[in-house]
Amino acid sequence: MKKKAYLGIDIGSISTKGVIINDDNEFLAECYLWTEGNPTRATKNVLHVLQEQFDQERYRIVSSGTTGSARKLVGSMIGAQVVKNEITAHAVGTTTLHPDVRTILEIGGQDSKIICVENGVAVDYAMNTLCAAGTGAFLSSQAHRLGVAVEEFGEIALKAEKAAPIAARCTVFAESDLVHKLQVGCPKEEIIAGLCKAVAGNYLNNVAKGKKITAPVVFQGGVSKNAGVVRMFEEELGMPVMVDEKGHLMGAFGIAVLAKESQEESVFSFDVADMEFKTREVTCGKCANHCEIICVYRDGSLIDSWGNRCDNGAVKIR
Amino acid sequence: MEIRIDDRKKIAFPRINHYDYAIRYIVEQGLEAKFVLLPPATKETTELGTKYSPDYACAPFKHSLGSLIEALEAGAEVLVETGGLCRLDYYGELQKEIIRELGYRCEFINLAEYMGGKKKEWLKLARQLNPKLNPARLAAGVYEGVKMAECMDEIEESYFKHAGFEAEGGSFKKVYRQFLLEMQIAENKNEIKAGYQKAKQAFAELPLKIPENPVRIGVVGEYFTIMDEHSNQYLQEKLVRLGASVYRFMNVTNCHLRAKASAFLPKIKEYAQYSMGPTTTWTIHAALDYAKRGFDGIIHVKSFGCTPEMDAIPVLQNISRDYHIPVLYLTYDMQDSDTGLDTRLEAFYDMLERKKKVLR
After folding, report:
1. Is residue A188 within 8 Å of residue A148, measured between CB atoms?
2. A144-164: pLDDT as tens digits
3. So what's the ipTM on this one?
4. Are A245 and A32 in contact (CB under 8 A)?
5. Cβ–Cβ of A123/B339 closer than 8 Å?
6. Has this prediction a pTM greater than 0.95?
7. Domain residues of chain B, as ranges?
8. Which of A127, A130, A289 sits opposite B42 (nearest CB)?
9. How far is A128 from chain B (nearest CA, A)?
10. Using CB atoms, which residue from B39, B304, B347 is nearest to A88?
11. Which residues contact B284 (CB under 8 A, 6 or more apart)?
């Protein structure tokens, strides 16, 4: 009898993550790659990578889950049992790996959030509203401007003696500050350190405003790979900030744990990675609201649809 | 053959949730004029409103302007805009100008000018709308219309309280829809009463399946956005679909027919010494009340740039800290996509449910 395994996929705006775990929450396979604006293709690539690492002789996938901004699309694509938001997934993932954690800081490609944990369960959270200031997208666009790879940001920032002051509140202001600092000949590493400080400052002033940050703190999401931001957080908070080696996979891990907890089982096959998926947006004409209905097709036949506000726009699945 | 022309004036109000029905009743039964009842707001309403509004006006301004323009297109001759305690008091004036500049010809009545005025002035206004006015009938119509608003508030409250726990999917919605339909066409007080009693009875008979960890959420915040479903992207309905029991203090009955806001000030004096403007006293009082009654979470709703409600946020943070109750802050502008809201609400609900499961 093959042992049970659970698949979790986290499809974010910037990167797509996939993990397979067993009953003891051990990683059997993992994968991290760029979404590049095409969640369907990214998921297929992730599945191919996972399939190679995965020992199909000993394990079989009995349940799967999706999270992240394209969770719905990919969920219907792979026939996931659990489709959940990334906040829940991150909270569950982190508290499973670090049962003693009290605060989870997370900065991703386009969003940032804080989750407060008590007794191993999330009790409060906040997420950035309206604007994506101080997230990964901001850092990578500024890296591009400075001609530095965003992956090297952390190391360069650590070399700086001091951080150049850069307005933290708004990305637009931060950008004009940055251009100004460049034009007056400020050293690059100080500017990069300043940017890291701005990201940490923005986060603490906006997302974490009014929330009590208690140790132990875990920092995750793509930006947590930036050692400069980690140090700025430690300086601002005056407490150690832990970065998990698997921090970037936490959402995928969390949703895999949720899939396991759901106890719903069905057969999963890696064949979906080779099927053709198409989405089509249809404008419903049944009332003046003109809802945009998303229809997902697998090999030409409709498998799912959503986006209608009322029952008139419901698309029947044959 | 005698040709009869309907010479009643066609009057329109900006939409605000289902209160349209009560206003229709007052206009048609009391004032004996014609009311332009608009179909539910759509994306088009939003687009119209946004297009002709100053960018920095708040979302309620844009929604109501969209409604007014649609009403004109539907044949309205008299537009009525209300006044209020914040920028709203100036909105009628501004909307009148915008509509005039768009080239529409209509009468525009700004109730802000009548607020706090004498009864005589109001009667004069009513006579202006219908020269053949019967004052006794007007009084009865207003009374019954207000009664209808009260009935709708009570049924709505019951709906959002229980629908999340319904045993059979959609059973509450069916009753609620039927009730609203009856209010929409009611022509006398007996019909209002019958519809109300029927819905109340039907709700009481519907089977409930209360989950192991029922989640109770209180919704507080800015007057228009919190009450108008289209403006808040069906917030309460979404919560009900997730399986929560939803409470909202803010409605016409509680705000205008029962105790005055100032009566709540002593009850919240630990958190606020004086009134911070329009609806903040209600917001803070309701939030504190929910916290004390052991609710699982609070959702604070406001339109972007609503200063009074922004001032209430630090107070809510204090309540959240003291009573260990999470508060989700939502800000609405004219966004179109539901995805961001869905993610936040689902996460909020999941968190409350898991918390209950583990901590109790």
Report:
1. yes
2. 888 888 888 888 888 888 888
3. 0.84
4. no
5. no
6. no
7. 10-133, 147-210, 211-360
8. A289
9. 10
10. B347
11. B268, B271, B272, B312, B315, B316, B319
